[in-house]
Design brief:
This protein is an all-alpha fold. It has helices at about 20-40, 45-60, 70-90, 95-100, 100-110, 110-120, 125, 130-155, 165-185, 195-200, 205-215, 220-225, 230-240, 250-260, 270-275, 280-295, 295-310, 320-345, 345-370, 375-395, 400-405, 410-440, 445-465, 470-480, 500-505; strands at about 5, 10, 485, 505-510. The strands form two sheets. It has a two-stranded antiparallel sheet. Strands 3-4 form a two-stranded antiparallel sheet.
């Protein structure tokens, strides 16, 4: 163990990826995050056959064909219920993770996957499109919870030197979920008139696997120690996760964090919004999550098929090119896992939003000239791939990592609740507004996305610090001056005293 001191305690040795940590990461990410990505893309390929089912069911019930406007409304509901469910799932994060724990919430969340999987699987037999719409809302709740709880759980399991890499794993499984849905959606696999119900129902399998295997892995040690006060269980969990018995340094850091925030208690969203010491952290996660969703990533995917068609890709082959784009997304997210600890979070965010901004501008030019310049459609395809690459290395995975890192234990659930709500509301807004934006502005709508990317980039450049390889308390210190508060962790090198009175003396607001 290193002899140097940090926050008045010995610095713990560098963490390593043990079998327990690796398996807990893979099982929770596959069981929860994978489903988020899978259900984002699962409706794309079989949409024609599902709408035919909607029409046939309506005709059988009422003896007349469904009106076009009503069919459009039903399909819009089928798509948009998912992000709406995600928003409501995000609102459930704080109460559930505080009551059930991080692992407990993930296990409970499987209800919101298995039930809708069965509902969607039997929808054709039941001859009910209403079941699909309701099921999409319920599976959206699952996604809203998992998109927030998995990064929180893994961030609290990980040693600080691996926190960034492990924090990107949920996003990696989201992209693998999207790719899996694209592959299964190929016409001769399940994206046809007989296979679409099975394709929708498959989302329950990862949930069943998680339900069977995750109970064998530890709860978050930080939750167990700080929120449950069970040091013995927390120590055992840490020893399993780290692969060595000497975890006193990490336990000491947790105790210090616990003492530094005893006066705050468990923060609600309202108290989080009013707390001066967390003001800039809160603004930062709101802007990063809005930037992530409002940067045009959903619009790029919406436009992709028409871009490929204009470049001369045969209609039947577009599905394979789409799978190729999904594979690029997965590959670049894997790259982010390996470079995030070396390059840092801030650089990946800046590069990612910068690439997306440039790709949106170039795509606007290419779309306007692709009818007159013969080679311009190929530039459009290149722009789509470049955009997907840029989004995969920074804007997609890093906001989840940074949300975990910017907040201490008492504030983290409420912070994820705010971040998740912003994420899903922004997602819902883009899905609702983009068709009208595209109709009114056409390809120029991407200029709006480029400005959003640029604005987010400038904010990150000016405000967001680098958080790699630092403790949660150190990150709190980084924001202290900007928030105009002073956080002292004790007299000299001594840790905080237990009493709330002494804490009141150590944590005070000053006018810098």
């Amino acid at each position: 163990m290193a002899e140097s001191e940090e926050w008045g305690k010995p610095v713990e040795r560098r963490g390593r990826l043990t079998a327990v940590l690796a398996l807990a990461t893979l099982i929770s990410a596959f069981g929860s995050s994978f489903q988020y990505g899978y259900n984002v893309a699962v409706l794309n390929s079989p949409s024609l056959f599902m709408q035919q089912f909607y029409n046939a069911t309506y005709l059988e019930r009422y003896g007349r064909p469904m009106e076009e406007n009503f069919q459009t409304l039903l399909w819009s509901l089928s798509v948009s219920m998912y992000p709406l469910g995600g928003f409501f799932g995000s609102l459930m994060v704080a109460p559930l993770v505080n009551r059930l724990g991080r692992k407990g919430t993930l296990l409970f969340n499987n209800i919101f996957s298995i039930v809708p999987a069965v509902m969607m699987g039997v929808s054709e037999i039941a001859k009910s499109y209403e079941i699909i719409i309701v099921a999409r809302f319920i599976v959206g709740i699952c996604a809203g919870l998992s998109s927030n709880v998995v990064p929180m759980y893994l961030g609290e399991l990980s040693p600080k030197n691996l926190r960034g890499a492990i924090g990107i794993i949920p996003q990696l499984f989201i992209t693998i979920g999207i790719l899996s849905a694209q592959v299964l959606g190929i016409r001769h696999i399940l994206g046809n008139s007989t296979g679409w119900t099975l394709m929708l129902g498959l989302t329950g399998i990862p949930a069943l696997i998680e339900l069977l295997l995750l109970p064998f892995f530890p709860e978050s040690p930080r939750y167990t120690l700080i929120q449950r006060g069970d040091e013995k269980t927390a120590k055992k969990a840490l020893q399993r996760l780290r692969g060595w018995d000497d975890v006193d340094g990490e336990l000491s850091e947790m105790h210090l964090e616990d003492q530094s925030e005893k006066a705050e208690g468990h923060l609600s969203v309202l108290s989080l919004l009013s707390l001066r010491s967390l003001r800039w952290q809160l603004v930062s996660i709101i802007i990063m999550n809005m930037g992530q969703q409002l940067s045009g990533v959903n619009a790029i995917y919406y436009y992709a098929d028409s871009i490929y068609a204009s470049a001369g890709v045969k209609q039947n082959d577009i599905q394979y090119v789409t799978v190729g784009t999904g594979a690029v997304n997965v590959f670049m997210t894997i790259a982010a896992v390996f470079i995030v600890e070396a390059s840092g979070r801030r650089l990946l965010l800046l590069c990612g939003f910068g690439i997306c901004c440039g790709a949106c501008v170039l795509l606007t030019v290419a779309l306007n000239f692709q009818e007159t310049v013969t080679w311009m459609p190929y530039v459009s395809i290149a722009c789509v791939i470049i955009y997907v690459t840029g989004h995969a290395i920074g804007p997609s995975p890093i906001p989840y990592v940074v949300t975990t890192e910017m907040f201490r234990q008492s504030a983290r659930p409420a912070a994820f609740m705010v971040a998740g709500s912003v994420h899903w509301l922004s997602n819902f807004t883009v899905g609702l507004i983009f068709p009208f934006l595209e109709r009114g502005l056409g390809s120029y709508s991407f200029i709006i996305f480029s400005f959003i990317c640029l604005a987010t980039l400038l904010y990150i450049w000016l405000v967001v610090p680098e958080t790699k390889n630092t403790t949660f308390l150190e990150i709190c210190q980084m924001f202290a001056k900007r928030n105009k508060v002073e956080i002292k962790l004790g007299d000299g090198d001594q840790p905080l005293k237990e009493s709330k009175e002494s804490l009141g003396d150590e944590l005070r607001v000053t006018a810098f």
